[in-house]
Description:
The structure holds two protein chains of two kinds. In chain A, strands 2, 4, 5, 9, 10 and 11 form a six-stranded mixed β-sheet that branches. A five-stranded antiparallel β-sheet of chain A has the order 1-3-8-7-6, with no helix packed on it. Chain A has strands spanning 4-5, 11-14, 19-25, 32-38, 45-50, 54-58, 61-66, 71-76, 85-92, 96-98, 102-107. Chain A contains no helices and eleven strands. By secondary structure, chain A is an all-beta fold. Chain A is globular, with a radius of gyration of 13 Å. By secondary structure, chain B is mainly β. Chain B has no helices and eleven strands. Chain B has strands at 4-6, 10-13, 19-25, 31-38, 42-49, 56-57, 64-70, 73-78, 87-94, 103-104, 108-112. In chain B, the strands form two sheets. In chain B, strands 2, 4, 5, 6, 9, 10 and 11 form a seven-stranded mixed β-sheet that branches. A four-stranded antiparallel β-sheet of chain B has the order 1-3-8-7, with no helix packed on it. Chain B is globular. The N and C termini of chain B lie far apart (36 Å).
Amino acid sequence: QKEVEQNSGPLSVPEGAIASLNCTYSDRGSQSFFWYRQYSGKSPELIMSIYSNGDKEDGRFTAQLNKASQYVSLLIRDSQPSDSATYLCAVGGYALNFGKGTSLLVTP
Amino acid sequence: DVKVTQSSRYLVKRTGEKVFLECVQDMDHENMFWYRQDPGLGLRLIYFSYDVKMKEKGDIPEGYSVSREKKERFSLILESASTNQTSMYLCASSSHRANYGYTFGSGTRLTVV
Lengths: 108, 113
């Protein structure tokens, strides 16, 4: 079984702070790494993708990948209440394995 | 706006019924997937398809089958519905052109009574 592990949370951060979400994976052959955001009652939406070691920034979001440590992270800067959601880490090739998600709560 | 459309948002079926869940995408994506999502268990892959008439088992294929007769349509079939198949079913599609990031449908909440 190809495992993708995330802390379930909830992770609570004040508005304007940096939220840091982490993910580890077991399959060293994984080539693609994604972060999805899922609001309650909605389907997941893709927010970040990363394929090589290092950092990738998109607006307030930064994804970090370390293949040697089998570790992926997502930083959300200037967190807003609208960022409150469950964040899913997904890892794989063209079929993805998902973590169970980390619940993020941004408090005003 | 690109879309993955699942035919039903909510569905209630009886134990033993044959159930069809339909998914259609308009993005010309090669790959299509069926997952179920359950509290505490996350998203689990049931079946996927990388081409018309091709199918691959995922992690939990038992009790399910699939059909992909056209590129844009991927159907999930519950041969004889059981109460443990009550779940949220999510269809997704992807393409090598989009580096395999998924686009999800809005989901079908299936209740088997």
